[in-house]
Amino acid sequence: MSESSTRPDKASNDRHEHPAQTEVSDSSAHQTAASQAIGENPTPGNRNQNPPGIGFLKLIAEDFHTYDRKVSEPGFWAVAIHRFGNLRMDIRPRLLRMPFSLLYQVLHTCMSWFFGIDLEYSVRLGRRVRLWHHGGIFLGAISIGDDVTIRHNTTMGVVHQHEGWKKPTIEDRVDIGTGVCVLGDVTIGHDSVIGANSVVVRSFPPYSTLFGVPARRVNVKAGTQRSAGTDRPGQEGPVLRSCSPRIA
Hints:
The protein is α/β, with parallel strands linked by helices. It has 2 domains: 43-116, no CATH class; 140-248, UDP N-Acetylglucosamine Acyltransferase, domain 1 (3 Solenoid), CATH 2.160.10.10. Helices cover 36% and strands 15% of the residues. The protein has 6 helices and 15 strands. The strands form 3 sheets. A 6-stranded mixed sheet has the order 3-6-9-12-14-15. The radius of gyration is 24 Å and the shape is globular.
């Protein structure tokens, strides 16, 4: 028998003799593919992400005005702690920043434990964001735009733990009702409204009104003939009309 005819059998024997190596290779390939699918973290938290064009003190003053100048509003303090967490990232070197980082961690933990608002500094937070009725608020988003309203029991984050940084993006002037979940790598277009207890797992364009589990778009921008998810052309129904105004 020739030497070439024996090579396949030898390769086959090698696979049987070293099954662990094959499993390790498959596992590594799977981890690499998963890492590529997740992509790089767009908000690694290694820089100051406070809104540009306005100083820190003016930003805090604007937030204070957003909360009706009420120092007792937990939402104001959650936002202020978030702003401070970003401001400290301008301190170099890291050794000098450590005391401020420790202070931030203590303040953030207290806000989460005592008021139920979890807003990490790594979230890009816009201006004039209002957190109504504290409690059960976890905002693990990529970014939250300007003039966004968020109410209690709202959750933003990944769909599955292994998905890493696939988190929501909330554009400007979005009004989010009580008990809403926004999950995964989705974008909520500007000037949208999300009804109470809705679960959003896909992206929606601007000027959308969303209700349901999973959330459906029940209206489109003014001037269109038919509303997606409604029974009659051009009609939103009394429930939608009653829920459309921004009522805290």
